[in-house]
Amino acid sequence: AWTKHQVGGFKDKDGFESEVVRHVETTLARSLYNCDEAAAYSATALAFRDRLILEWNRTQQRQTFSDSKRVYYLSLEFLMGRALDNAMLNVGQKDLAKDGLSDLGFRIEDVIQQEHDAALGNGGLGRLAACFLDSLASLNYPAWGYGLRYRYGIFKQEIIDGYQVEVPDYWLDFNPWEFPRHDVTVDIQFYGKVSRETNEKGKAISQWEGGETVKAVAYDVPIPGYATPTTNNLRLWSSKAASGEFDFQKFNSGDYESSVADQQRAETISAVLYPNDNLDRGKELRLKQQYFWVAASLYDIVRRFKKTRRAWKEFPDQVAIQLNDTHPTLAIVELQRILIDLEGLEWDEAWNIVVNTFGYTNHTVLPEALEKWSVPLIENLLPRHLQIIYDINLYFLQTVERQFPGDSDLLRDVSIVEESEPKMIRMAYLAIVGSHKVNGVAELHSELIRTTIFKDFVRIFGPDKFTNVTNGITPRRWLHQANPRLSELIASKTGGHGFLKDLTDLNKLELYVDDKEFRKEWAEIKYANKVRLAKHIKATTGVTVNPAALFDVQVKRIHEYKRQQMNIFGAIHRYLELKAMSPEQRQKQMRRVSIFGGKAAPGYWMAKQIIHLINSVGAVVNNDTDIGDLLKVVFLEDYNVSKAEMIIPASDISEHISTAGTEASGTSNMKFVLNGGLIIGTCDGANIEITREVSQDNIFLFGHLSEQVDDLRYAHQSGEHVVDPKLVRVFEEIEKGTFGNPKDFSDLIAAVRDHGDYYLVSDDFSSYVDSHTAVDEAYRDQEGWITKCITSVSRMGFFSSDRCINEYAEGIWNVEPLNTTQDK
Ligand code: 26W
């Protein structure tokens, strides 16, 4: 296989060591004698970065000369995690680095751990973008990511007295993976007004004038592909005051402070990632972020296209832009503005180009997550864009009226402008109208958007505009890096590491499912991963857990629809059952460790109560001598990508238990199964397709189906629902004060018992508990369990993000991989 070191790698171990030493002594200006692990990390990262740069430059040249169509992935979030291990893997010289570092007195694992996560995302959507970049590079697609260079990524979570406390994540102190491009800048305009003039030819021309200008500065991050020379680019924009904006008038008149304040105001645009996941708050600064990033990216893309000197109508043959949710939807409006106001194209010609350029991916059906911006807000910030949005809507509604004459309800329902007070722009509708393809992220989810939230648009545009691309994950990070021993074991049976390029190769494992030695090694690896997690649990929470117990894991953003509350209610139920048993009976029960992790949005009261309840239950259960190691409940602080890489390989069963129809896909479900864990889950998102692949026998499904949800909710509202008796018992125990002040948890209980149980916790509770009993029984049969795990892993090939990216490339972008063989 191709490795990058064939071009610019270290000659040998000594070559690597001397580069590390050089960076310690010169770049870092430190003596080798006080080189600690942090410095060893820095120098190793710099040494590998140097290797990447060569291939990065060559890739850019190759893509420019080949003149082929490029993909631009616009995402407000890229949840990259650490980069060094991935860089070493993809340069192809990790073994050499391991030996070299060892000569210098370091363990490579410890050095890798020194890196701060690049955490520029909230959860699934941001991590998906990161997996996509990995696959795009590994498959040789000419592709760029465009995002924002937040000074603060997602906050660091601390748990203090059982409560979440948010601490700012300043991650840029030392970041060897970014290259500032102070020569690549774009001036971005805000506010101002629109003037209309008639030109020589009698055509009306709109000009956006005045207002403020902020400068966008590019920072580039190399994205190396695995076993290929391709190294793509992720371009992140940082805001600063435009040169003219640093008000020298003020400066000279002695008003230095307010001049500096202007500077800081400009910098706030890219200062912080909004920590809301699946909740739209409509804040002006967020809209500013969106336009700032979209306008800078489009300027860059258009500038690159113009260098080819092609006609405008060829733009969609050269450029595919994918919108990662509606966050970059203003790009549609901005491109239309560039084409008609700046480049002088006619409306229809421009609009054709726009629609053929964009694709839109929807990631959620939750109504509170669908972005809407108030008309007065847009009018003030982006006056010309509002006019264009109105024109887009006008022409769109005219075609609808021609298609469905006199259907005024339909016109109102599909209008991009919601006639509320104030009026709102529905960004998803704008994204649909301005794109040639709209996709959901798992089969059920894509079906739901076709039949519920976007059903009117299916009537208008026809069914072909709406497609499914089931999400995927990169096996490089989520198998090889996270679980190196399992990766080696698989390689030993499947004929090398080819499965990292073609994950369907995993099916070769099924031949070994009865191989004694193989099964033994498999079990040993899982156990070792559990020991490692047990040590982490001990070190961070003080709780001792038995690695022989069943590890039951739910790690993801805390959200009522994901139902961590159901999980902790289930743990309380288990505790009460154990307490009610005789000691003899108790000794026959399975040992469990209930492991939780995840951040709550800082303003999400219910989610914070859930975290508090988990910690309060842990404090009681973990110290109950009747229970011992039969049940432990732990909450792991600050769940992030690098913690996931440790937690996921240590799981026996993981929980993906959203109310049916609410979790668009889920991607950690794929990661857990790929690492030899099983799933307990609802018929939701990608769980359904995982079941199709691994078979019903290898997954624990429970709960109501999405088509039942409306009726169940209605039953709650009309008072027909009776709360599940086991759940009533759990509530009684909480209200007795067993887990601390019951007032602290009263809203959680009330949501289920008194406020309509929107997420149907009571409806699914008894089948959830039964399903856990089935898990216990299955785990009791260790041999049967291992068979399930091996079989499942062997059938996970479908969930590679490589498959997923190939589907986007063929069905949406119409792009092809670039041949790189001339380099070899
Ligand atoms: C406007 C506020 C906001 C912020 C983030 C709204 C919505 C989001 C994201 C779309 C939330 C998100 O991460 N969605 C997740 O996307 C994953 C990748 O497709 C899916 O696997 C998850 O099911 C979905 O919740």
UniProtKB/TrEMBL annotation:
Keyword Transferase assigned: yes
Keywords on record: Transferase
Protein name as annotated: Glycosyl transferase
